[in-house]
Write a structure and sequence with these properties.
Number of strands: 5
Shape: globular
Largest sheet: 5 strands, parallel
CATH class: Alpha Beta
Number of domains: 1
Helix content: 25-40%
Radius of gyration: 12 Å
CATH superfamily: NAD(P)-binding Rossmann-like Domain
Length: about 90
Amino acid sequence: MKLAVPKEHRPGETRVAASPDTVKKLEALGFSVTIEKGAGDAAGVPDAAYKAAGASLAPSAAAALKGADIVFKVQRPLPAEIKAMKKGALLL
């Protein structure tokens, strides 16, 4: 099951919806986690930390969201993110 974590794009938002520790735990449970490149930058979490935890990195939100069964977000998704989500995806 694919889980996606796109970067938060709303002004002033510095959080990210998953930490590298969370990614490790989700991967151990059998999820395939994809993180948008730069998603953790504002929170001080580099892409390398997510990669080391087992996540795949996607070049854009659309690429991260493509085919995702579950989407982790902090803020409500932007219209472009909603369009990129597959029908029936679970948004948390």
